[in-house]
Amino acid sequence: MADRIRDHDWGATPLGPVSGWSGRLKVMVEQVLANPLAASLVCGPERILIYNDAAAHLYGDRHPAALGRSLPETFPAAWATVAPFYARAFAGETVRVGGQSPDTPAGEGIGTEVFDALLLPVREEDGRIAHVHAISPDVGGRIAAEAALREIEELRRIALESGGMGAWAWDTRTGLIRADEAFHRIWGVAFADAPHPSSVYAERMDRDGAAVLDAVMAGEIAPGEEFQDRVRVTGGPNAGRWVQWRGRAERDRPWIINGVTFDVTAQMRAERQVHDNEERLRESEARLAAIFDSAPVGLSEIDGEGRFLRVNDQLCRILGRPRECLLRSGIADVTDPEDVGRSIEAACRARETGQPVALDKRYRRPDGTAVWASSILSVLRDRHGRPGSLLAVTADLTERRAADAALRASERRYRTLLESMDEAYADVEMLRDAAGVWCDFRFIAVNPAFMKHTAMPYPVGRTATDLLGAPNPRWNRMYGQVLETGTPLRVQEHESVLGRTFDLNIVGIDRERNRVAVLFTDITERLRAEAALRESEGRLRQFGDASSDVLWMREAETLQWVYLTPAFAITYDRDRAAAFSGDTLANWLDVVLPEDHPSVLAGIARVRAGERVSFEYRIRRPGDGAVRWLRDTDFPMRDAAGAVRWIGGISRDITEEKETTERMAVLVAELQHRTRNLLGVVKALFHETARRSDALDAFREQFGERLDALARVNALLSRSGQPRITIGELVRTALDALGGSAAGGRIRLDGPEVRLRNSIVQTLALALHELATNARKYGALADERGRLEVTWSTHRPDGEEERLVVEWVEHGGAPGQDKAEPSRRGYGRELIERALPYALKARTRYELSGEGVRCSLDLPLTRALRRERPTP
Amino acid sequence: MIATAPSTYRVLLVEDEYFLAQELTEVFQGRGAEVVGPVPSVEEALALIAASAHLDGAVLDINLQGEMAYAVADALAARGVPFVFATGYDRTAIPARYARARFFGKPLVVGQVAEALLA
């Protein structure tokens, strides 16, 4: 304290520096310091305190701030009480303060202690009272005495509480004990005014207690000597209880001990409880130590300066250092230099806040490798709750960090996948209404494709109802169902608010938090396209069904039909369903004429190889056995990869077409034949006419007329598609050319309609022309008087084919007719009498009389010609 | 018909056109050949061939009153009798098996036909 006073900065106080102090003040300070009692000097009007060590003890935590400060400031509460005493002392009175509490500054330091103080005025050399010297008596001694008193009081209290204190007087020479009723109650011995030998009580106490009695009786007892013991009652009704006795030898008769005995069982039990607790604490500590040592995490206790106080094996393993080494080290010695700062900071924070602090940091092993570890630092408190050392729980993070890194990488990959995939993804939280029914859902997360598939604004954090107004209520039902059943759902569903249909995979991902993941695609366009395709296919089917050609498709690999239009049934005269079942290629080849198989199969092979091929073949229709010509136009059909997947074909029945072509070829050949033959006939006509003509004029006339006749009959012959020419038509044509109308009623034609083979028409027509022109020039038609009858009929002589007979009969012919007949046989007669028999197998008769010509032509019709209704 | 020496050329004429048959007959006879026929039909032609012990040649019209004369051609070929076609048909209309037969299109230049056989 002397040092402290010497070193104190007195210049800052009203007393000023020590060098300026008066001699009297310095002496007083020395007196105060030398006083073994608590002494202080209260200086000047400011009442500045200077005090000694004993006083410092009394001041408690006011010390050392009280030094050099004013008394009222230092003890503001007590000052109100003591100020009047000090006022008297400064007034020159020696003041004694005592018996009051708290009434002195020291009183504040020790609470309710009874206290005495002496206040002595101190005069300066000028006689003025400048200071007061305050002295407190030996407070320490008084306190000890008071503690003893308190113990007695306690015993008294225990005795009273335990049901009474027994009083006794023990003559150690006789061993007799005279005791009161309470004493006997304690021991369960019947009360008697007469003394009992101590053995009566010794028998009822444990052996140790009895031995103490014996020892007291056997030993030398000093006057006033005190004895006490605590013994266990082993007999009588109070067996099991504890009693304590206390006695003092009398001054005059030291063999007489007077004392008291009281029951201390409750106290014993309390003490034992404390003992047991301590035992348990030790056990608990032992267990804790075991746990500490065997814990699978690193544990350490670290003092305020970062030194390891205790470490367990696991920490030694983590840090790669033996225990002895660690216990000689501090945290900083084993921490990676870069993390030392953070380590210290974390420890300070734990101490300051009293809260556990987590810290991930690197340690450095002796081999130089770094090891990541996570520690939790907690402050350990003593039993008063005051912070002491730190407990560090340390886990090796190296593996966990690797696992975390792998997890993060995996999460990153999934995130990348979610963000880059074309399918939409949404993580939603299902919401219930007050009745607990799923009523809405909130979007927790979506991927970028979500917006593309839904055309919705960014939905995260918003509910479906918020976003869409009145969304399809089935979403709630389906998501809720997935949550409740735990079974994923694959479904197609339409959202009319968006006008879109989705294909969804719904999976419950967190039942606790009502979370559902939905992976989906917008299939609106696809459905539309599919519908359009179906429509288009429907139209194509109609097209195929309506086609009179057979449209078909075969699989390129198996050559089996996969498509066949209904025209098949007509073209092949075969049931389409039957042809379409079983081996459809074999079904088809059955119908194709065997001789056409090689070319047909070759054609199909070429299509299969990717060529477009057209070929013709024949089938025999199973129904009517008719052979039909078909023309196939076949083409390869490729899949997306360009491979020939199918072959398609159009089969057309070309039988009629082929027949028409052949007919046309025949017709052309016939036309050519007829034309050239006709020229041959003309040439012969020319030749015959020229041969018989004397003059060019006659030739010109005759040849011209014959050529005209030939032209007329060829005109008749060339009427294509008309029924064959009848004999009636031929006769009329020949006569009409002469101006038959002029002949009027003078000509009679009569006979049935008889149709003639084309091959006989021309020759017959030329013959009729000769008859007609002769009649006109020289015969019945040469003037107004003659008449002509042409009649015809058919007949069938026995054994012969049907024949036509034409009778040409002239009446009233011109007189000079015979002159017209040249001497040489004329062309007309030769035609009738020679050519007709030669070419037409005709039997002819030609007669010339005064009436005119009478001619009969009888020729075979060769093949039975249909007889028509006769013309009148 | 004029009787001729056995060494004379015997030609069968098959032609349904009377005046043309006459002309052919005159030309062949004019060149010293003996004409067998002429006949205007397949039936008669076949009958003549069957009845004739010897034939040196034949002139065949193909279309005989609407009937095709190939049966006659085949009968002649079977007997090794050379023949020529005298027809209004185009050569291409004649079956390929007669491709080697001489062919004369109508209207005929009868002299050429005779020369072809008699040469």
Describe the 3D structure.
The complex is a heterodimer of chains A (872) and B (119). Chain A is of the alpha+beta class and 872 residues long. Chain A folds into 6 domains: 2-137, 2-Layer Sandwich (Beta-Lactamase), CATH 3.30.450; 145-263, Beta-Lactamase; 295-394, 2-Layer Sandwich (Beta-Lactamase), CATH 3.30.450; 422-527, PAS domain (Beta-Lactamase), CATH 3.30.450.20; 547-653, Beta-Lactamase, CATH 3.30.450.20; 696-860, Histidine kinase-like ATPase, C-terminal domain (Heat Shock Protein 90, 2-Layer Sandwich), CATH 3.30.565.10. A 6-stranded antiparallel sheet of chain A has the order 8-7-6-11-10-9, sandwiched between helices. In chain A, a hairpin with a 4-residue loop joins β20 and β21 (515-522). Chain B is of the alpha/beta class and 119 residues long. Chain B has one domain: Response regulator (Rossmann fold), CATH 3.40.50.2300. Chain B has helices at 18-30, 42-51, 70-78, 110-118; strands spanning 10-14, 34-39, 57-60, 63-64, 67-68, 83-87, 102-105. In chain B, β4 (63-64) and β5 form a beta hairpin. In chain B, α2 packs parallel to α3. The longest helix of chain B has 13 residues, at 18-30. Chain B starts with 9 loop residues before the first strand and ends with a helix. The A-B interface holds A 669, 672-685, 687-688, 757-760, 763, 831, 834-835, 838-840, 862 and B 16-21, 23, 40, 62-63, 65-66, 87-90, 93, 105-108.
Summarize the model shown.
The complex is a heterodimer of chains A (872) and B (119). Chain A is of the alpha+beta class and 872 residues long.
- For the record, the CATH class of chain B is Alpha Beta
Helix content of chain A: 40-55%
- Tell me, rounded to a whole number, the average pLDDT of chain B: 83
Shape of chain B: globular
Decide which structural class fits the backbone of chain A.
Answer: alpha+beta
Please compute the radius of gyration of chain A using only Cα atoms: 76 Å
Q: How much strand of chain B?
A: 15-25%
Low-confidence stretches of chain A: 99-104, 106-115, 863-872
